[in-house]
Amino acid sequence: MSKPLLEIRDLNVSFGTKDKPLCVVNDVSFSINPGEAIGVVGESGSGKSMTALSILQLVPTPPARVTGQVYFDGKDLLQLSNSELTSIRGKEIGFIFQEPMSSLNPVMTIGDQIDEAIMLHTDLSADARRVKVLELLRLVGMPDPETRIDVYPDQFSGGMRQRVVIAIAMACNPKLLIADEPTTALDVTIQAQVLDMMLDIRKQYNSAIMLITHDLGVVAEFCERVIVMYAGHILEDADINSLFASPKHPYTQGLLKSVLTLTEKQHRLYQIQGSVPPPGTIKEGCPFRPRCPVRMDRCAVEMPPMKSYGPTHVAACWATAEGVE
Amino acid sequence: MTRYILFRLLDAIPTVFLVLTLVFIAMRILPGDPALTALGPLADQAQLAIFRERMGLNDPLWLQYLKFLWDAVHLDFGTSLINDVPVRDLIIRNLPHTAYLTIVSVLMGLTVGIPLGVLAATNRNKPADHIVRLYSLIGYAIPDFYLAAVLLVVFSLKLGWFPINGAGHGFWDGLYHIILPAMTLALLKSAFLGRLTRTSLLEVLGRDFVRTARAKGASETRVVYKHGLRNALLPLSTGIGISILATLSGAVAIELIFNRPGIGRLLIDAIHERDYPVIQAGVMMFAFFVVIVNFIMDLVYVLVDPRIRMKS
Fold this sequence. Notes:
The complex is a heterodimer of chains A (325) and B (312).
Chain A: E1 6-16, E2 21-32, E3 37-41, H1 48-55, E4 65-72, E5 75-76, H2 82-86, E6 93-96, H3 110-121, H4 126-139, H5 145-148, H6 158-170, E7 176-180, H7 188-205, E8 208-213, H8 216-222, E9 225-230, E10 233-239, H9 240-245, H10 250-257, E11 307-308, E12 313-315, H11 318-321
Parallel strand pairs in A: 3-8, 3-9, 6-7, 7-8
Antiparallel strand pairs in A: 1-2, 1-4, 4-5, 9-10, 10-12, 11-12
Chain B: H1 2-29, H2 34-39, H3 45-55, H4 61-73, H5 87-122, H6 127-141, H7 144-158, H8 170-205, H9 208-216, H10 220-257, H11 263-272, H12 276-304, H13 306-311
């Protein structure tokens, strides 16, 4: 197996005071190989976005505290200074944000905003950069790029803005693209267009992608591997076929059951009872325990370790480990 | 764009008209007889009658009002009751001094206030922030006439670094004379603008597009100035407008204390002497100034915010 592009070890992100920390990401470890597309799924508040943001140190510290290691190309990103990080952000790692409506600067033209990403990391002349910006706009499917290049974000719809955000992220052909719910804020038809466009880009550029989403359908279409997160913990990490065929964690099973299918007759959609516990409420044991249909006494005391269920499938559940179904 | 400017100009007309009317009414309900004040207690009834006739004070009120409006539109403010000089000349002589004081003090306030605000915002809750906030508090708390007196005593009387009064002749001498008065006005401006810059910048720096800029690989300086301050300019330009207008009330006291010529000074003297035409003209100048500054600020909004540009 090749050397991973990104390797996260024991990542912890917490807010609050030292004595009463509120952990939003707990001992998260995973890796991404070059060119690989992984999906990170989980409900709101599961720590997906925080994990992604802390890779590039985009979580404001303070108030947050980030510990652990994030190796990218052999360097621990968490140890880098701000100026060292600027040469990685946007160049080696591109970031697509969830909110296209607010993630563009309202007083700069979209051309200038894409151009900035190129200018910061290359020595190209202004003319050459403009050619590149037009190329990027075409890549993200912007109709009529020559006139749109000098337009302000407010003149665009959400879908168009998200294309601009993607163009910014792709400007320097990054080795890793982190997409934090890139289609959540868009309406369904636009979602499909943007996803198709991202699939195209992926084929052309062969970047590794970390796709954060709560839509398992998107994951199935896009990714080779899935990480399931819950309340700041990784509960399951598996290749896509194995996960969909035989999910090991009761939470993953619940998630899969609650997806609407068109092939089978369904009466009432399955739902996992309860909701994600607020950070800091569950101090020990498995965070999913209160909502788990197969919980055991042991779950309250000890967080289950990752157990292997095949070459590319791990899950953290006491019940599954003991064969309880 | 042209349409926007045109509409803004049209907007200003009723304001000016309203101001003129208010000035007219205020002048007529003031206690005291202008003829008596102008000619002094020794004037006899005949002299007073001639004076009233000449100044049109015997005309019916509506006719006075129409004449007043007509003259105002032609920038004819009559002659001073005290020394028979055309008011227009008085204005022309004094206006540049007040304009100069305004410009210099606003520039001082901006060059000190904005960097202080940026410093405070980027060092939130650190010593630098606390110092800037303390400075703002002091700037707000010290009345300008008091500060003016303190600066005069310390820098002009004791140290002899600056002149005590007057406006000087020529550019360099003028600049030398304006430093203390402008500094006095600038303290409050820098305190106000510093605070405003801090607040708006902090608000902007928390927005999503700032995170996008960081994720692009922009340096912190670039994030703060190019993305942060550029957006913070929108609320800030309103503050700068307010700050320019505040110079007017400040100028009255400052011109008196530093014994400088200027509209504020002219107005105060005229009020003492009940010199109606000059008071009218002085108040009108202040009102025009407000209208003009507001108009300019409206144009500035268009320049700094493309969203307004697109709507118009």
